[in-house]
Amino acid sequence: xxxxxxxxxxxxxxKAASRSLAKLSTAxxxxxxxxxxxxxxxxxxxxxxxxxxxxAAGTQAGLTGAMxxxxxxxxxxxxxxxxxxxxxxxxxxxxxxILDERLRPNGLKLQKMTTPIGVVVIIYESRPNVTADAAxxxxxxxNATILRGGKEALNSNRAIAEVLVSAGRGQLAAFSEHAIQxxxxxxxxxxxxxxxxxxxxxxxxxxxxxxxxxxVAECSKVPVIKHFKGVCHVFVDADADLKMAEEIVMNAKxxxxxxxxxxxxxxxxxxxxxxxxxVIANRLSEKNVELRVDQEARELLNGQxxxxxxxxxxxxxxxxxxxxxxxxxxxNVRLVEGVQQAIDHINYYGSAHSDSIVTRNxxxxxxxxxxxxxxxxxxxxxxxxTDGGEFGMGAEIGISTDKVGARGPMGLDELTTYKWIGIGxxxxxx
Amino acid sequence: xxxxxxxxxxxxxxKAASRSLAKLSTAxxxxxxxxxxxxxxxxxxxxxxxxxxxxAAGTQAGLTGAMxxxxxxxxxxxxxxxxxxxxxxxxxxxxxxILDERLRPNGLKLQKMTTPIGVVVIIYESRPNVTADAAxxxxxxxNATILRGGKEALNSNRAIAEVLVSAGRGQLAAFSEHAIQxxxxxxxxxxxxxxxxxxxxxxxxxxxxxxxxxxVAECSKVPVIKHFKGVCHVFVDADADLKMAEEIVMNAKxxxxxxxxxxxxxxxxxxxxxxxxxVIANRLSEKNVELRVDQEARELLNGQxxxxxxxxxxxxxxxxxxxxxxxxxxxNVRLVEGVQQAIDHINYYGSAHSDSIVTRNxxxxxxxxxxxxxxxxxxxxxxxxTDGGEFGMGAEIGISTDKVGARGPMGLDELTTYKWIGIGxxxxxx
Lengths: 430, 430
Description:
homodimer; 430 residues; alpha/beta; Aldehyde Dehydrogenase, Chain A, domain 1; Aldehyde Dehydrogenase, Chain A, domain 2; 2 domains; seven-stranded parallel β-sheet; four-stranded parallel β-sheet; 16 strands; 42% helix; globular
């Protein structure tokens, strides 16, 4: 069987499985999730053996220590994956919710009801925990999953999926063996084949670095829900509470700089800069944050004795820097002339992910909230809150900066679509 | 300027216009829509002169009478377009609705609020009224539009768009001249260029025949919301009210056969076929509907004297016929063994558009409503109701059979996306 045939078979099987998944009751799905969690722990040693094959190959292939660490599955990590499935079992079923209901003058009752999407392809990088997390969320929302993890994690991913499917089938006769499938090859062409099968695959959600996501978006014929990167901003308005601004800026930058909702660029109203910039620059330098600043900010900082010892950590920002997602202890700083310039900067250089204004001025806050065209916009809060858990979604399959389909953090609800149900008593159209 | 540069300029202008459109108040938008409606009537003669150029070129190019009729704009049609804009002005503003609201334990208040999508490309065939209808709906929902109608209607479309923009600018200084733009060339490559500009264009909605829509979906790098075709079914269950089933079948097939929500295939429970099939075959033959039937239905019909005079209108259906959208006085008929076979037939051969079950049996109705994977599923009602007007949306920009983004009829609400707004008092993440 060639690659195209193999991918077609995989996708066709997933579509058939999605029909039977859509029929499962909430209780059936939850029982399967709990059985999967137990089986992961029970078969932990087998999963670890598969993982050791990946670790050995990875070491030989020269993966970095950080990459090997992401790849590794130990007992604690497996327990944490199992806990994740139990948490998903405890969440409300997202299928069958009535989003809208209307009774037409002719007596036809219309209901807009959530349904599973169908077949979801997840493409991700090395962490094998995504295999179980994504499969669990897709299963709870009634979707069949096709998983394509990093090539260095293939053995681990297959072992996890086998345990999940086997536990599901042990729990429930109606559980399809194709509900959760791992692409059995590391051939990159497999992705392109799979994402051309619009008759079977309903959506693709890539997770990982920008280059992976761009490659997927570029080749896919099926809808892709994604975010390329997180170039997030905090704008400190002229009427900001300075202490609040300090805490939000520090949290958005240094609490966890490697994640997509961390701040990359700080915008400060020019009027406030003399009072705020030296203070925040000092605090940031204590955390070894490199600043890339505009000319005006540099002049202001140069005039300050107190930060002269941190001069080596201050550079002039290049035009490209404003577009950068550093995921590191680096921060762009620009002074702006009021809220409109801040909004324009964000809409031009940003990635439509998460942006925040710090101000006591309600009119300017409302303008910022209305005009910044991002998935999540905050007033007096850190950008770091853009996260399924923080939003109360219970779990997250990813974050979207798209405008068609889900936007912002995606939990179980965002793994559903809807259909319209019309209940009549013989209505015909005149 | 070459084509790529020209399309890039068009799209960039649209994106800039979308920023200013998003700021308009409901009153400002409605005043512009009413001014546009008045201007269309006032400048009717100029629009008709432009239309006459298209009509003359179309006649010379050998367009059929039906195509020329679709192309024609007379005073009555222009009045009807103007009325459409006034109707849109009267509809509620879809922007700024709160879809969800949650207060997190840390005091952060989250609101999921509807916003405009941004830049919407509409690609359509010859009817020039779509130019104003689509522009009006997009404008009311705060989106900038780029319109690409049929090449035979270019003069008409440009004339309409000019009147709309000029009226908008006359009414409101903040109205951007790029809020509504017509692609100024009939070069087909323009579409491909435009739909590669993911940094400016947010969504494309093609309207027209399957080949147009497939071509757009195939080449587009931006999300496309679409339906390829409407292969709609009515399933007459064993427990159907026969008189109701007759009326629904006749309405779904012959009330307007050329539209996408008309029925193409009738499925009848085998148990009911002897009582129902001859009756409905007779009624359909009175309306000159050709039947393409399975072997079993043919044998049943052959045994009936009463319809022997209509034999020439009954053929055996081919495998391909079950996939066909006839948009004509032709109907497939198949006998099935119960509701599950009907559901399986629809999910395999259908187009996920609109399907109906006629039955008094609640359990089977619920199974059908749950398992038929279509945008609209009916119980005891005609498939013909899948329509923005019939759904109470006031107006319709199209119908979607997609699962990412809007599904079913699309009105103003379906021309919006959402953003998350987080309002805090200094919250940071721990």
